[in-house]
Design brief:
Blueprint: H1 8-26, H2 39-50, H3 61-65, H4 70-73, H5 120-124, H6 134-143, H7 152-176, H8 194-200, E1 219-221, E2 233-235, H9 236-240, H10 266-310, H11 321-337, H12 345-362, H13 370-387, H14 395-423
Antiparallel strand pairs: 1-2
GO cellular component, one term: membrane
Keywords: Hydrolase, Membrane, Protease, Serine protease, Transmembrane, Transmembrane helix
Function: Serine protease involved in intramembrane proteolysis.
Length: about 450
């Protein structure tokens, strides 16, 4: 077979012939580094040879099959089995000189360099020495990646809220034959009557302590009363339920907690679930279920404590709004703590302000307490400062954050203690007489936010 002088096959043959002769007969060039190829040098020399009058190479067909000898095909430089002939990591093999590394060989060079070991509490609050390096935490913050992928606690709480609301509707339907109360008063949130909500555990101060304006002898509309004004009245102890009072004295302190799981109607629970499954769920993803649990229930309970102090004593209150407002306060902590990492922070601030004002306006609807919203938001800010994982780039910023955490924790404890003590005094209104207007829009139907706030369906003796 005759190979044309300028053909590709001709060049490849010359290349291969050069490799075979140069490596086998003459050995390895002293300057050749392991892994280097001689084919480029061979091609250069073969092309240089053709520039003269070198005659074309003639090969027989059977010579193509045996061009490489057996010895050469088994040498470490053969391309036939690179994996089989590979040298261990960081070492050389064969006839070439050893590799020189810029840095000493480190088997764990690509292992994630986590921060120094810290206490579980430091990791829980998201200290700078957290689970991941600082650069990765900043990148995760910009991309919206939190501590966990799924908000399991938010989902569980939402399922519980739905189950409790179904139970509310069952009690309401058994009492009045309809899931929505239209008599003796209309529930604008399309849900149970006021008496049914009190019976199920709404925040209602006359069931929690002695209220001079609503003593235990007060008669309220029974659950099955559908007349307006009410014609079927029941003692306060019976309407409060839960096996009545001990020694005839109202003492149902747990009504600081139970209203979190109750809702005034279909509209109420739909709005709360919408916020909880969006805003609250994202907060749980970012701070983890542990911190989210503390913020959610601390804010919800404190909202009811604040409302019990300054709301009209005769107006029942329900809803997880205080707890949800507490989780939205975390978004404010995140916004100001990580302003430079936020995407369009000014725009985000505007939308968050609008959402807060809408929630505040909803608090004037009957059976919904604005104090729960405001109290939950306030304590959410304080507890969020303590437990939200804030990224501290400098030691100065870290010291400032720890100072804020200590102050916030002290303020949260003081607020709880002061307001609970104030609630169990004879007249909690005396501490702030005008605060009632934060949750009551003065109209003729509510006596311009004066008195007890009991609806027309109730009477007292």
């Amino acid at each position: 077979m005759i190979l044309p002088e300028n053909s590709k096959d001709h060049l490849e043959v010359e290349d291969e012939g050069f490799d075979h002769e140069s490596i086998i007969s003459r050995g390895v060039s002293p300057g050749l580094v392991r892994g280097a190829s001689t084919s480029r040098h061979a091609l250069h020399q073969s092309q240089a040879g053709y520039s003269g009058s070198r005659p074309p190479t003639y090969l027989e067909d059977d010579e193509n099959d045996h061009f490489y000898d057996e010895a050469y095909s088994k040498r470490p430089t053969s391309d036939a089995s690179l994996v089989h002939n590979a040298a261990p990591a960081g070492q050389s093999k064969g006839y070439y000189q050893d590799l020189e590394y810029a840095d000493p060989y480190a088997p764990n060079a690509y292992t994630s360099q986590a921060a120094e070991k810290t206490s579980p509490f430091a990791r829980f609050i998201g200290g700078n020495e957290g689970k991941y390096p600082l650069e990765q935490r900043i990148e995760n913050k910009k991309r919206g990646i939190g501590r966990q992928t799924y908000p399991f606690l938010t989902w569980i709480i939402s399922i519980v809220l739905i189950a409790v609301f179904i139970y509310e509707e069952v009690i309401q339907t058994k009492a009045q034959g309809t899931p929505v109360s239209f008599k003796p008063t209309v529930n604008p949130m399309l849900g149970p009557s006021g008496s049914a909500l009190i019976y199920l555990g709404a925040r209602f101060p006359p069931c929690m302590k002695n209220v001079s304006s609503v003593p235990p002898s007060t008669l309220l509309a029974c659950l099955n009363d559908t007349a307006n004004p009410s014609t079927i009245n029941c003692p306060l102890e019976e309407v409060c339920g839960f096996s009545g009072f001990d020694n005839g004295t109202p003492n149902q302190w747990f009504r600081f907690i139970t209203p979190i799981f109750l809702h005034a109607g279909f509209i109420h629970i739909a709005l709360n679930l919408l916020c909880q499954l969006t805003v609250s769920a994202q907060v749980e993803r970012e701070m983890g279920s542990g911190g989210f649990f503390l913020v959610y229930f601390a804010a919800g309970i404190f909202g009811n404590v604040l409302g019990a102090n300054f709301s009209l004593v005769g107006s029942p209150s329900t809803g997880a709004s205080g707890a949800i407002f507490g989780t939205t306060a975390i978004a404010w902590v995140d916004l100001f703590a990580h302003w430079k990492y936020q995407y369009r922070p000014v725009r985000k601030l505007v939308f968050m302000t609008i959402e807060f004002l809408i929630g505040f306006a909803i608090g004037y609807i009957p059976y919904i307490d604005n104090f729960a919203h405001l109290g939950g938001f306030l304590l959410g800010l304080l507890v969020g400062i303590v437990f939200y994982p804030v990224i501290s780039v400098t030691k100065r910023h870290r010291a400032i954050m720890w100072t804020c955490r200590i102050i916030a924790m002290v303020l949260a404890v003081i607020l709880f203690v002061v307001l609970i003590r104030n609630f169990y005094t004879s007249d909690p209104y005396a501490a702030c007489p005008g605060c009632r207007y934060l949750s009551c829009w003065p109209t003729a139907s509510n006596n311009h936010c004066q008195g007890t706030g009991l609806s027309n369906s109730s009477s007292s003796i």
